[in-house]
Structure to design on (283 residues):
């Protein structure tokens, strides 16, 4: 380290080689008491560019390009020339920003179709019992269909009668009974349609397979093919009523506990028809 790099306290004399105090002129005060700038610092100040000179042309062009890009695509600037945000003043009467969804063209999400109905008031024990009976009558419909098919026309009307009796008295019972009537009609009519269509298709396929079996394969294959078709038809005929009974028992349990149960698809269809469809003007 050189002598001018060392800070010398004027109050502490330093002896030189000849016994006299050694003083560094860079750190000695002038006659007016001012300390001159050291040589090392002065040389660096001389090499530094003047502060009042404009920036280089290339740098200025780059800054202009960046500013123009920001204003064009982001409508803001990251430089210090952008206006500073004003601090919020704690005013008790200040108004909060209100969003107007019509101005920004935002649509509210549609109403969810599978939400539970709001029943006004407390559900009484009588209401829960009749709502459960309306759903449980589907089991009676299946038993009557097996024993005496024409009797189905009477058992299907049980939930409809409950609906007509309670439609002006209890919304809870009315909605459950209307759902029960609809699912029983769908299950009964659907099973009848599947039975007729299956019988027609089965007869046609039996006739075709009989000809092909006798010509190509033989009688054993004909018997196996007929049995397979009969099994498929019976399965398709009974799967719909079976699903009707399962859903009806679940709904009966929910109704007896005072809850609203919505059949898949059927409940939404009933809501649409009661509001805007034919059921709204008929029942």
């Amino acid at each position: 380290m050189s002598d001018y790099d060392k800070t010398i306290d004027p109050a502490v004399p330093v002896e030189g080689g000849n016994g006299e105090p050694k003083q560094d002129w860079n750190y000695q005060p002038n006659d007016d008491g001012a300390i001159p700038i050291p040589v090392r610092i002065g040389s660096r100040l001389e090499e530094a560019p003047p502060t009042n000179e404009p920036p280089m042309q290339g740098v200025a062009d780059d800054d202009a390009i960046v500013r123009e890009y920001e204003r064009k695509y982001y409508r803001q600037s990251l430089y210090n020339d952008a206006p500073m945000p004003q601090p919020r003043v704690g005013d008790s009467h200040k108004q909060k920003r209100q969003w107007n969804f019509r101005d920004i063209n935002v649509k509210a999400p549609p109403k969810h179709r599978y939400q539970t109905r709001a029943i006004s008031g407390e559900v009484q024990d009588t209401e829960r019992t009749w709502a459960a009976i309306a759903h449980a009558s589907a089991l009676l419909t299946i038993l009557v269909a097996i024993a005496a098919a024409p009797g189905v026309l009477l058992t299907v009307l049980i939930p409809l009668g409950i609906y007509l009796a309670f439609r002006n008295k209890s919304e809870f019972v009315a909605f459950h009974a209307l759902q029960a009537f609809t699912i029983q009609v769908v299950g009964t009519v659907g099973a009848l349609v599947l039975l007729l269509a299956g019988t027609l298709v089965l007869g046609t396929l039996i006739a075709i397979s009989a000809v092909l079996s006798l010509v190509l394969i033989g009688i054993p294959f004909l018997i196996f093919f007929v049995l397979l078709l009969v099994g498929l038809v019976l399965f398709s005929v009974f799967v719909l009523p079976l699903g009707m009974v399962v859903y009806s028992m679940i709904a009966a349990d929910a109704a007896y506990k005072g809850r609203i149960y919505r059949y898949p698809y059927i409940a939404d269809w009933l809501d649409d028809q009661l509001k805007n469809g034919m059921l709204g003007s008929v029942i």
In short: The mean pLDDT is 70. The CA atoms of residues 149 and 245 lie 17 Å apart. The chain has three domains: 1-47, 51-78, 125-282.
